[in-house]
């Protein structure tokens, strides 16, 4: 495909939309060759199918589809940690702010050359989830839909997660005091911080909703002498956590239950921890979620809600198409302000809020390092497309936390009574840097 002047069409389109020269090298099957030939990062569109992926879903979704199908290839970055290529694209690529008319004129020659198939996407990767509207039509029952979404994300392979997450099996933001901290040190510090904020005392009852593989439950029982009920919708997480509890000799204190948190009938818990569950709830369900947790606590009890948030609510709560189709089906994120407001509307009194944004960037870097170091095992365990998805997701998320598009907030609240009794929450400031 060339222009009347002989320039390849892809090359013509790329140079037409850039404000500055390409900071990497891009080649394509049609003879396109732009960018420095000695660039550290080099990308190639292998065939017409790869180009059609990019045309039919401009942005992250099209790039992911082409990469996952091998029709977009590259060198100069690790598949387990493609952070460098994301950083280059997001920080150094300068694209013109084209209107619809100008964008159409740039793409018109390519569309004309490809014909009617130009805007018909090639076969989708098998691991891609259905569009959100199709998922909702297929599963009208919200609890059934939630179970499917959790299973899609977490029931990949416990062996895969063991390699990526490390011995803690904690798939939530760790807490780093220094960049030189190990992942395990930082995860243990996170569990201890949650326990401190909840003021866990021997003999108390803790409800840990969305307990994952049981890391917080085991820490609370082992270090604080607390009785814990942990619930997770992931069967593989529950089975792994139940085995870990037995191996730790904590069956008398910890129960890991394969269950929707909404099926918990017990009440009167002293404390509730929710670490990484809110992202799956859906913003419109926040009120019901916090109201339910409020109902599980005794008067004066505490809630620690730890979750990813957006910087603000000016954008949609829904994730980018790649994340929605490949990582967190039905996941949504709101601002910390929305979280705090919903807590108060459900009857809580928020006592403390802390943003651990940069700690999450370090956590993601450590997970990518683990994936890269165990790449062959992870590919053998979960398959190449899934391993690639995790590399894309974690490296892209690291950049989002570094740049401040995403935050991680720990919100501590008390079930304060109508007469102002907050369970003896202490005077003074706490957990300051």
TrEMBL record:
It holds the Pfam family CMAS. This is Class I SAM-dependent methyltransferase. SMART domains: PKS_MT (SM00828). SUPFAM superfamilies: S-adenosyl-L-methionine-dependent methyltransferases (SSF53335). The keyword S-adenosyl-L-methionine applies. It comes from the Bacteria. Belongs to the CFA/CMAS family. GO terms for molecular function: methyltransferase activity. Residues 160-416 form the Polyketide synthase-like methyltransferase domain. GO terms for biological process: methylation. It comes from Dermacoccus abyssi. InterPro entries: CFA/CMAS, CMAS, MeTfrase_dom, SAM-dependent_MTases_sf. Keywords: Lipid metabolism, Methyltransferase, S-adenosyl-L-methionine, Transferase. PANTHER family: CYCLOPROPANE-FATTY-ACYL-PHOSPHOLIPID SYNTHASE (PTHR43667:SF1).
